[in-house]
Amino acid sequence: MTSAAGLFGAAAAAPLTARSNGLRAWKTLAEDVKGEMAWAWDLYRQHAWGKDEIKPVSATTSSFPLKHHHLGLTLIEALDTLWVMGLDSRFRDGVDWVKGNADFDVDGEVSVFETSIRLIGGLLSAHHASGDPVLLAKAKDLADRLLPAFDTPTGFPYRFINLKTGAVRDPETNPAEIGTFLPEWGTLSRLTGDPRYHDVTRRAMVTLFEKRSKLDLLAVKIDARSGEWLDRRATVGSYADSYYEYLWDSWQLFGDAECRQMYQLCTAAILRHQQVWRDGRLWIADVDFETGRIINAEQDELASFYGGLLAQGGAMKEGAALTESWAGLQDRFGVLPEGYDYATGKPIAVGNALRPELADAAFNLWLLDRNPRWREIARIHFLAMKRWNKVEYGYTDLADVTSEPKRQADHCPGYWWSEQMKYYYLMFADTPRFDYKRNYLTTEGNVLLGFRRGA
């Protein structure tokens, strides 16, 4: 005969055992992620050390953001991921290379936006992990070389600048390339005591907000000199995405209440005018920024990050629904296509540039509510990447996600090292090196707040 106490004890033991097994499974998955990172890093070191990006099918390299000169992009982007995974000897080797070899005094033109989020952000996150002052000095040197791009009547930066001469080019810019600076540059101001970096990038962000339409929407193309709009399309995808992200992030990182208010106003307008439900799925449509008229049903894979941002800003229901819409496409295609039309149900761009955005959304949702569903979406994302993107010398992008088998290309972007590998690991590992309650990751996945160096 079993006592009541025994019955209750057995009932309690089962979920505890299941929970324990579940935690072990996630930690095993984290070790798998860590192993893949170490494997890919060792191949990068063997075949592309010091180069910007490895082409992992041919074991050759490509340069970015300069056309014909390497700055060590992959090294810099990978550093804080290596550190948080506890791959300490590899982290030290990378830092040693950067300290001894990274030189930005180059007569060549770079994207102001890409160089900031990838290289300045990467150097700052590596400094956050290590405390090494040389990394901070290099981030400052690079920011100083980009600063002249902001010398326009509006304060909006030119899109391109020569690192040596300061010559600028292309004033036809967009919200993402105007407003995706403040977290990195504000952090640089805090660490150096020089307010210029914070002030110049915040001015650009605020001035753009002031040019919103009567519907509180922003279009995707504007002249940096005159401030005149050159386009009417409002989107949360490419050319706009990270502007909204950095409005919220500047509140999260610095407590900037005006940035929070700007985020809330923009988000309310987006949900009011761009929210579309089709067959039980939520999408964010492109619309005319002055009339709200839907322009098309095309969805940019880059916009799959947006569900996580919505949830961070308080719209948890919409954020979860949008992320589930993209997760449904992941289930259908295995890997998300670069473009999708929700009206026809067909992909409009069949490649995939080894993208992290859905994993990013899942990570941000998971940080908020710890729902295992978001871990599961990330698990599927990781295992699909292992199945379809892994090649002899690392991980590559895909030319066609609809073919069987999926057709591979030959390029591993720098963000792969900084973003999805970090999102996977942080979600699965429960590492003591990261503060899961108080943290900040940039649009490029660089950790500027939340590392625990004593762990």
Question: What is the number of domains?
Answer: 1
Helix share bin: 40-55%
User: In the CATH classification, which architecture applies?
Assistant: Alpha/alpha barrel
Number of strands: 21
Strand order of the largest sheet: 3-4-5
Low-confidence stretches: 1-14
Provide a compact summary of the structure.
This protein has helices spanning 4-48, 73-84, 88-101, 112-130, 133-146, 175-179, 182-192, 196-210, 241-254, 257-273, 306-312, 316-333, 357-369, 372-388, 414-418, 420-429, and strands spanning 53-55, 60-62, 109-111, 160-162, 168-169, 172-173, 222-223, 233-234, 275-278, 281-284, 286-288, 294-296, 298-300, 339-341, 346-349, 390-391, 394-395, 398-400, 407-408, 440-441, 447-449.
Which short descriptors sum up this protein?
single chain; 455 residues; alpha+beta; Glycosyltransferase; three-stranded antiparallel sheet; 13% strand; disordered N terminus
